[in-house]
Amino acid sequence: MTIRFILLVNKQGQTRLAKYTDQRLTVEERRVMEGEIVRKCLARSDKQCSFVEHRDYKVVYRRYASLFFLVGLDSEENELAVLEFIHCLVETLDRHFGNVCELDIMFHLETAHFIVDEMMMNGCIVETNKQNILQPLQLASAAAAPGR
Question: What region holds the AP complex mu/sigma subunit domain (predicted)?
Answer without folding.
Answer: 2-140
